[in-house]
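Backbone-to-sequence.
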């Protein structure tokens, strides 16, 4: 750039008018409109609404009560998503960064969003690069870990590129803005992943499968049942609509959808108390099925900080002076990387020795040096770069084999070769409980993969210290020249080093293609593509805003050791919902079978919507709601829908058999219609209660209480609200019939469930 005085104010204004300003604010999170749309516009909601409209048009208002269940479910989903999104946006709100920029030859401070194309910006050590730039003058060492995953410092001088989001660790440069807003590297990488992932929930997939199947059945069945009632049985319009609606409503497991939402929302609330933000509540369920977990090293297994572990004196003549030498060195050094911070935390700065001829650290040299009065030239850096190979102390090799970072303090007097006087062992701090967490996940059958931009040997050694199984199976992905080689490596190795952002995505794709349910943790822009690809994405709160926006879960304390808590919540939801799901699918099956029988026999469906709704609330909702809160850490096994339908089938068949038996008896004995309907409904309640008893086994005080109150409560409710339910009371003549049929049902049900358990074993 010829003009070193920066842009003129007129040129700045001109670029703003052209839209060349660094103020791009598009978010990867869902809009409020999108959240409402996703929760409202579903096939399940459409079918229920369609039936509700039909009931409303004929004035059957009491039979529309079931819509309350649908509205509550929609409200829970919308509230949870908006609440989580708002919390993430609050995490992203930070003080506006001020940058130094030259305009008309004057250095001024402006917000980073006020930068325009071609601005000349001054950036110093400790500052973040606000936009993609090209260095004009100066020298600096830059940390690009958030973008590339590579923690090594990169030297930048005139002509070099600076990527937005990177940090200057040392030095100072003047750089010219070459990209603004959405053209910045970090924004482009983020926007590749901004499209929302499809919902990944076995429970909801099962509900959608049922809704999809019934959608092919409900409309034709509803129309045929209505026509049959209206024309063949000469029923009035209202009666025809009500009985038709009851048949098709029973096929939709409304209560189960609500129970899943409540169970997951409870999990969201419990995890929030443990500082885990759940943005997609169905991610809790998915994590319960996860069999592969991809972990980032820095910020996940490790804290991202260094700690001095030990100081070894290797020359007795300097032993007593070591702390004074190191303290004086630190006092006069301008280096500010994490290694120097660890040294400053361990060694107190002193002014014992005056310094001159200071040479800052360089990632190319791997050392820094300065002259200390009366001591000589003191070097601090990597042993293999500071010392001749034959002069490296044995303690260095031993420490490196343990996966530790090693620095040497060396002194060179009168232009002689530097001689080591001390060795400093530094460790990358492993998170508390990391070893315990990794061991637990491995024990639970979760395959662990560590993906990092760092040297694979370093990562492998850190993985070893963290207790990662198979830490010795590592690979440098720069050796993979094609995408296919990367995907093949995904299945062979445990530790992956020198991994580029696109390669992280390929690794996740390969693991998913192999049949795995993959979770991924990350904290930088370099992790965004892989996070979006994973079945469950987990971000660290102290990482980049882009990762927080697109992740299913955000660990507010940036501590991956809380992941077992999420696993437990997922298992609680899946296991408990699966346990009670058979209760909900009973009416789906018997409604379908009875609808077919009614069509062929030209008879009315035996129940009405309000009767079904009472069972939804008292038998399906009440006990299942409380059972869903029980702790259940058992590993999830089996598929949800086949398990649920198999559990519901005996009860559903008993309902059909009982309805047919009562219809035949009523015809032979010429029972009044009200008595026939009442007996059928009481038997329906009893058979449904058998499923509640089964779900409550083995009994404990809570389950016993739920069993008694469910059975007693619904019969009391049926008698209290018999007029609304359009039933009567069992007469003295009907009570023995009811008792005999329920005794037979109980014996037959017990025999069937015993045979099913025996077959499973």
């Amino acid at each position: 750039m010829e003009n070193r005085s920066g842009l003129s104010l007129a040129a700045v204004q001109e670029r703003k008018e052209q839209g060349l300003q660094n103020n791009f604010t598009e978010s990867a999170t869902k809009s409020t409109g999108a959240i409402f749309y996703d929760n409202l516009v579903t096939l399940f909601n459409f079918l229920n609404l369609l039936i509700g409209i039909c009931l409303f048009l004929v004035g059957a208002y009491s039979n529309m009560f079931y819509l309350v269940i649908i509205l509550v479910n929609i409200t829970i989903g919308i509230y949870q998503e908006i609440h989580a999104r708002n919390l993430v946006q609050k995490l992203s709100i930070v003080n506006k960064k001020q940058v130094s920029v030259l305009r008309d030859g004057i250095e001024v401070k402006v917000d980073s969003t006020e930068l325009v194309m071609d601005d000349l910006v001054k950036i110093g050590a400790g500052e973040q690069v606000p936009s993609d730039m090209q260095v004009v003058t100066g020298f600096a060492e830059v940390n690009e870990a958030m973008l590339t995953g590579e923690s090594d410092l990169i030297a930048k001088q005139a002509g070099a590129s600076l990527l937005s989001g990177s940090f200057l660790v040392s030095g100072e440069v003047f750089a010219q803005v070459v990209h603004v807003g959405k053209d910045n590297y970090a924004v482009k990488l983020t926007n590749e992943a901004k499209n929302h992932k499809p919902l990944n929930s076995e429970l909801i997939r099962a509900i959608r499968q049922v809704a999809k199947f019934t959608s092919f059945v409900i409309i034709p069945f509803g129309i045929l049942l209505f026509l049959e009632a209206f024309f063949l049985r000469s029923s009035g319009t209202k009666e025809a609509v009500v009985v038709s609606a009851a048949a098709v409503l029973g096929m939709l497991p409304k209560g189960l959808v609500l129970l899943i939402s409540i169970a997951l929302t409870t999990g969201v609330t419990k995890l929030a108390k443990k500082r885990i933000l759940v943005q997609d509540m169905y991610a809790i369920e998915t994590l319960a099925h996860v069999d592969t977990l991809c972990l980032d090293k820095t910020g996940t297994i490790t804290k991202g900080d260094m700690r001095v572990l030990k100081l070894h004196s290797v020359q007795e003549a300097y032993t007593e002076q070591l702390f004074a030498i190191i303290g004086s060195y630190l006092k006069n050094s301008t280096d500010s990387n994490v290694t120097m911070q660890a040294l400053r935390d361990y060694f107190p700065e002193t002014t014992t020795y005056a310094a001159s001829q200071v040479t800052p650290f360089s990632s190319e040299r791997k050392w820094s040096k300065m002259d200390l009065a009366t001591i000589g030239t003191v070097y601090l850096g990597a042993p293999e770069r500071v010392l001749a190979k034959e002069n490296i102390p044995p303690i260095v090799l031993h420490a490196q084999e343990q996966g530790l970072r090693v620095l040497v303090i060396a002194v060179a007097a009168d232009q002689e070769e530097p001689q080591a006087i001390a060795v400093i062992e530094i460790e990358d701090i492993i998170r508390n409980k990391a070893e315990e967490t990794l061991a637990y996940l491995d024990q639970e059958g979760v395959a662990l993969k560590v993906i990092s931009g760092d040297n694979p040997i370093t990562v492998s050694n850190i993985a070893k210290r963290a207790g990662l199984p198979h830490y010795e199976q590592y690979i440098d992905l720069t050796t993979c020249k094609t995408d296919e080689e990367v995907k093949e490596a995904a299945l062979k190795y445990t530790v992956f080093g020198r991994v580029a952002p696109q390669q992280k995505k390929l690794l996740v794709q390969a693991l998913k293609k192999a049949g795995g349910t993959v979770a991924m943790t990350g904290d930088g822009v370099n992790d965004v593509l892989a996070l979006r690809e994973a079945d469950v994405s987990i971000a660290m709160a102290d990482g980049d805003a882009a990762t927080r926006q697109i992740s299913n879960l955000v660990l507010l304390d940036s501590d991956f050791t809380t992941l077992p808590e999420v696993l437990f919540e997922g298992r609680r939801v899946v296991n408990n919902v699966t346990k009670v799901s058979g209760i909900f699918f009973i009416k789906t099956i018997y409604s379908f079978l009875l609808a077919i029988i009614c069509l062929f026999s030209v008879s009315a469906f035996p129940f009405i919507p309000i009767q079904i709704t009472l069972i939804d609330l008292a038998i399906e909702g009440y006990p299942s709601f409380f059972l869903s809160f029980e702790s259940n850490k058992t590993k999830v096994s089996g598929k949800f829908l086949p398990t649920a339908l198999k559990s519901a089938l005996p009860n559903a068949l008993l309902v059909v058999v009982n309805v047919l038996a009562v219809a035949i008896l009523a015809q032979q004995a010429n029972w009044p219609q009200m008595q026939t309907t009442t007996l059928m409904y009481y038997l329906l309640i009893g058979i449904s209660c058998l499923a509640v008893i089964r779900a409550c086994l083995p009994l404990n005080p809570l389950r016993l209480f739920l069993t008694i109150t469910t059975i007693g409560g619904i019969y009391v409710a049926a008698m209290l609200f018999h007029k609304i339910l359009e039933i009567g009371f069992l007469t003295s003549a009907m009570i023995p019939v009811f008792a005999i049929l329920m005794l037979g049902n109980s014996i037959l049900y017990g025999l069937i469930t015993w045979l099913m358990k025996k077959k499973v074993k």
